[in-house]
């Protein structure tokens, strides 16, 4: 059974409320429900966290490193400037997949840069919940 740590970054608790034209109507609770259902069906053990705090995200990564095979992370705004989260991902040395609901390459110019992409094995973005499902599938098929 694959053990996946899934982390949602800042403001994702506002899904269904914020910028519906970008993120849609789905709430974080609904998104997590879809992820959990898919994980159960595919025999994936998934721990899901959401935090608006950079330090808390780092703590989640490091505290769960021994019980995790993969990390799936949507660092949200931290994608573009959190070298601290990048360093935590690199330090735990676990295959990590970067995920975004929206297509960050087609948004504001500052969103096009990811400081964590070079410590991730794969990226999925721009497909809403499907980005998360593709990340889960990628982890299932992973062979080092």
Feature tags:
Rossmann fold; 19% strand; alpha/beta; five-stranded parallel β-sheet; 144 residues; 5 helices
> What structural class do helix, strand and pairing data support?
alpha/beta
**Biggest sheet overview:** 5 strands, parallel
**Integer count of domains:** 1
Count of discrete alpha- or pi-helical segments spanning 4 or more residues: 5
Question: Which homologous superfamily in CATH is the superfamily?
Answer: Dehydroquinase, class II
CATH topology: Rossmann fold
Could you spell the SSE succession in H and E letters?
A: EHHEHEHEEH
CATH class: Alpha Beta
Structural features, described:
The protein is of the alpha/beta class. It has a single domain (2-72, 83-141), classed as Dehydroquinase, class II (Rossmann fold, 3-Layer(aba) Sandwich), CATH 3.40.50.9100. It is built from 5 helices and 5 strands; from the N terminus they run βααβαβαββα. The chain has helices spanning 20-23, 28-41, 54-63, 83-92, 129-141, and strands at residues 2-8, 44-50, 70-74, 96-100, 122-125. It has a 5-stranded parallel beta sheet with strand order 2-1-3-4-5, with helices on both faces. Strand 3 (70-74), helix 4 (83-92) and strand 4 (96-100) form a beta-alpha-beta unit. Helix 3 (54-63) runs parallel beside helix 4 (83-92). It is globular, with a radius of gyration of 14 Å. The two termini are 16 Å apart. The model has no long low-confidence stretch (mean pLDDT 93).
